[in-house]
Structures are given as structure tokens and as C-alpha cells.
Write a structure and sequence with these properties.
The complex is a heterodimer. By secondary structure, chain A is of the alpha/beta class. Helix content of chain A is 42%, strand content 21%. Chain B has one domain: Orthogonal Bundle (MetI-like fold). Mean pLDDT of chain B is 91; it is low at 236-240. Classes of the chains: A alpha/beta, B mainly alpha.
């Protein structure tokens, strides 16, 4: 009897591990839960934010939804549900590590340090640090910030780069820390700060939300190189392949550019030559 | 869980420096706000016990307004809304010329809010003293100032030391909300360590331990205060 039970347990274990080998932990989890969980940001316009109906939308969300469609196909589960979980820069990696979300679809820069906690798909966007100032302020680059107040989000790559640059140039700049992009814009609108440092694309997105967008301009050279990617769980090559395959197909068939035009067209933001190159380089053939 | 633990990160520069400066900011912010809260709260608490209806009504309105609005909302109101309501030059001074505007706004928000709680406790302490004591003092020729100075305040404060202890601890914990207006106190620094290293569990564990150390220190100090100021004969048991 005991042998029978042991055999049954062993068989069951073999069965699950065989499945796990085929699908990897993430897809196995998605299949068991019958849900594909996407982590989204609340105010990273136009990548990932909540719209008027409080639904997640944006460029990164569109990319992730294509991966979701691909997962549906691979698992042959036409009724696979999709769930959106809001994340913040502080929670995103913890929520991937503990399995709450299967994919983070926001505006996350791929860095070597971050690869210790999450894996990153192909590059989905390329940007860098710039500053947004009032059009009539006379500030044309970071070098003009002496004696001014600069608002940043603590812990971002932009903050680190701006602080290092300011220190190197020995300028006196007052730094104001805020919690999110909405508060940074509020600090600009209430005249608390003269400049707002962030990734240029996020600055264009924030500018669009201002009461009078024409009042602001994005200036300066790129201070950093920030390649964005979708973050997925570490050590799961099956899921990574699924995501990268989906992206490669989008790069090839022009649907990536279509999504770009849909979300960045209204921002009046020229297509960055680096991103154009990235699209070509990552158009991996079948 | 698919997570890389690395406790060493907490003892490496610049992250150790982040946490130390966070502890310093938390301590300075909470203590400064406490001075404001205790002073203003005492005045308001005494005002509420005065027979003059007008004076006690002013204090009552203050207490109801301040404790009726969440502290998080107060931080936002003081930082983003109040400077816009003031005349432009004052508003500009608050936003630009005041050194360290986030810190001082946080001190005001935290101190003024906690003052309403201290006021209620001071009032409770004074009102818990039997009326006979006041009557006896007045019968022996003391005026109102003397009654408060020699009878009501010494007895009232000594009765409320235990509740003031928890209020004092709460101000350290509430100071973490100051991160919402950009004060880099302990919680904000833990978040900063997290976003630099992605070792969020370690950073917040460190913050948790540091908060416990701070509040335990407060408890130990206040125990001493409590024993020294105990009213003989009021509490029969020795010690606590």
C-alpha cells in the first residue's frame, strides 16, 4: 500500500515537473491561475497610465497585450483572463520577484544592477535625461541651472545623473524631491521649481497634461542613455522567448511603429534615430 | 520566491549614509515638531478649561478642524495649497526663499496636527483633578494664574505622562508621511536604497528595525520620566 502511494506521489511529481519543463514557471502559473497578470504604472504617460475610466492604457500596455495574445495561443487557452495590478518604482521588482505580476509594463530602464532582480525583454524604447523649463525662463540646458530649483523623483536614474553633473560642474542648484510625475508637474505649475528633470519622453508626456502646454519646453542634451524594456521574472527562458518572439514580430511587421505613432504622435515628439536603429537591429527573423 | 538576498548592501556606502541621514532627519523632524505640538497643545488644552466661553470655543474649533482631517491631507494642504492662498510675495517666500521649505512645512504640518491631540490630553488631565482642589486654592487666596501654576498644571501633566508617551512615539511614526512632500527621512531613504539597488526587502527591514529602536528608546526615557514625576499616593503600585 505504502509503495503504491509513493509511486503515485512520484508519478504526480514527475508529471508536474515535466509540464514545468515545457512551459517554465511563469506560463505554468498563468495556466493554473487562468490569468495573465500585468503590472502597470498609474502616471507614466504615454507608456502606462490610467485613463479617464481608470483603465490601464499606453504604449507598453499595448506591447504587453500582444504578449498576452501570444501566451493565449501558446497555451491554447482562448478564455485566458488578463488582470492589471498597479505598481510603483518601489514595488515593481518585489512584485515580479514574489510572482504577483507576470510582466511589468511601465517605463522601466534596463540596467545591469536591475538584472539581478528581474529579466528584461528586447529594448522597447530609448530615451535619456533632459529638463523641462518654462519657455520664458531663459534656461536652455542643465548648465543654466545655477541658483535655480530643480525638481526630481528620488531614486531615478535621472536624479543620479543630474546630481552627478551638477556636482561635477560645481553649481549651486536646489533639489526638490517629489513622489511622482504628477507632483513634479504640480511643483512646476505652482512655481515651486524652475526645472523638472526626467526622461525626455516623460517630460513630453507631463507637458501635455499641463494647464497650458505651450508654457513649457523640453531642453538640453541627453545626460543619460536609458533603454526601456518590459521586466519579466528571472530564470524563465520559455517566457522570455515568448515575449521576445512577440516583440521581434512586431518590429518586423510594422505594428511596433504603428503603436509608436498611436501613442507618441500626439506628443509631437520626433522619432529618435537610436530607437529607429533599435527597431532594425531587433527585427530577428523567424 | 525568486529573490536575491543581499544584506551586505545595507552596510555599503552610499546606502549606509542614506539610512543614517534618514534617521537624523526623522529625529530632528519629529523632535522639532514635538516642541511645537507640546507648546501649542498645552496652550490650547489650558484654553479649553478656562471659564471664558469665547477662549475655550476658539481652542475647541482648532481641535475639531485639525483632528477631523487626515494628516496626509494636511501635508499636501500645507505644501501645495496654502502658499497659493497667501498674497503672492508671501507665497513666493514660502516656496523659494525659506531655507529647506519641505522640512519646515513638514514641521508645521506634523506639529500643528499633533498639537490638537496634545491639547485634548492636557484638557483631560486638568479636568480629571477634583473640583475641590481648585476651590481650596481659590479659598486660600490664589488668583487664576496661581491656581494653574501651582495646582492644576503640576497635577494635570503628571497624570497624563503615560498618554503623552504614546503621542510622543506616534510623532516619530507619523513623520514618515513627510516623504510625500519630499523630506528625505528614514522611510524615504529606505525607498531610495530600494530604487538604487532593488533590494527592497533588506532596505525596509532596516527601516523597520530602526523605527523600533527609536520608539523603544522613547519608551525607556518616558518610563524614567513617569517614575520621577509620579504623584505620591496616587498610584499605589511601585514602578509602572
Amino acid at each position: 500500500m505504502r509503495h503504491l502511494i509513493l509511486a503515485a506521489v512520484a508519478a504526480a511529481l514527475c508529471a508536474t515537473s515535466a509540464v514545468a519543463q515545457d512551459l517554465g514557471p511563469t506560463l505554468t502559473k498563468i495556466r493554473t491561475a487562468n490569468t495573465f497578470t500585468i503590472g502597470h504604472r498609474e502616471a507614466s504617460v504615454p507608456f502606462s497610465s490610467l485613463n479617464q475610466q481608470q483603465r490601464a492604457e499606453g504604449f507598453s500596455i499595448d506591447l504587453c497585450l500582444r504578449v498576452y495574445e501570444a501566451a493565449k495561443e501558446q497555451l491554447s487557452m482562448p478564455n485566458l483572463a488578463v488582470r492589471f495590478v498597479p505598481v510603483t518604482p518601489q514595488t515593481r521588482f518585489a512584485l515580479i520577484a514574489n510572482g504577483t505580476i507576470d510582466m511589468e509594463c511601465g517605463s522601466t530602464t534596463n540596467t545591469i544592477a536591475r538584472q539581478g532582480q528581474a529579466a528584461f525583454t528586447a529594448t522597447t524604447f530609448i530615451t535619456g535625461t533632459k529638463i523641462m523649463v518654462r519657455a520664458n525662463s531663459g534656461i536652455r540646458s542643465v548648465d543654466d541651472l545655477g541658483g535655480k530649483t530643480l525638481v526630481v523623483l528620488p531614486g531615478t536614474t535621472n536624479e543620479q545623473a543630474l546630481k552627478a553633473y551638477i556636482e561635477q560642474k560645481r553649481m549651486q542648484v536646489r533639489i526638490l524631491n517629489v513622489r511622482d510625475h504628477a507632483e513634479a508637474l504640480l511643483a512646476m505649475e505652482t512655481d515651486r521649481a524652475d526645472a523638472y528633470g526626467s526622461d525626455d519622453v516623460l517630460l513630453y508626456g507631463s507637458r501635455r497634461r499641463a494647464r497650458n502646454p505651450a508654457q513649457y519646453v523640453v531642453v538640453g542634451d541627453f545626460l543619460t542613455f536609458d533603454p526601456y524594456a518590459l521586466a519579466v521574472p528571472r530564470n524563465d527562458s520559455t517566457f522570455m522567448t515568448l515575449a521576445n518572439r512577440t516583440l521581434a514580430r512586431m518590429f518586423r511587421d510594422g505594428s511596433f511603429k504603428a503603436a509608436y505613432d498611436k501613442w507618441f504622435g500626439p506628443l509631437d515628439m520626433p522619432l529618435n534615430p537610436l530607437l529607429e536603429a533599435a527597431i532594425q537591429l531587433q527585427s530577428i527573423p523567424e | 520566491m525568486n529573490y536575491n538576498w543581499n544584506w551586505g548592501i545595507l552596510f555599503r556606502e552610499p546606502f549606509l549614509g542614506f539610512l543614517i541621514s534618514g534617521v537624523q532627519t526623522t529625529l530632528v523632524l519629529a523632535l522639532t515638531a514635538w516642541v511645537l505640538a507640546f507648546t501649542l497643545g498645552s496652550v490650547l488644552g489650558v484654553m479649553r478649561t478656562l471659564p471664558n466661553r469665547g477662549v475655550s470655543a476658539v481652542a475647541a474649533v482648532y481641535v475639531e478642524v485639525f483632528r477631523g482631517i487626515p494628516l496626509l491631507v494636511w501635508f499636501f494642504l500645507w505644501f501645495f495649497v496654502v502658499p497659493e492662498l497667501l498674497p503672492q510675495t508671501w507665497g513666493r517666500w514660502l516656496k523659494r526663499d525659506l531655507p529647506d521649505p519641505e522640512f519646515w512645512t513638514a514641521v508645521a504640518a506634523l506639529g500643528l496636527y499633533t498639537a490638537c491631540r496634545v491639547a485634548e490630553q492636557v484638557r483631560a488631565g486638568i479636568q480629571a483633578i477634583p473640583r475641590g482642589q481648585t476651590m481650596a486654592a481659590e479659598a486660600s487666596g490664589m488668583n487664576r494664574v496661581q491656581v494653574y501654576r501651582y495646582i492644576l498644571l503640576p497635577l494635570g501633566y503628571r497624570r497624563i505622562v503615560p498618554v503623552l508617551t504614546s503621542e510622543f512615539m506616534t510623532i516619530f511614526k507619523n513623520s514618515s508621511l513627510a516623504l510625500t512632500i519630499g523630506v528625505m527621512e528614514l522611510t524615504a531613504q529606505a525607498r531610495q536604497v530600494e530604487s538604487f539597488t532593488f533590494q527592497g526587502f533588506e532596505a525596509f527591514t532596516a527601516a523597520t528595525v530602526l523605527y523600533v529602536v527609536i520608539t523603544l528608546t522613547v519608551t525607556v526615557i518616558m518610563r524614567q520620566v513617569e517614575q520621577r514625576t509620579r504623584i505620591p499616593g496616587l498610584l499605589s503600585a511601585k514602578g509602572t
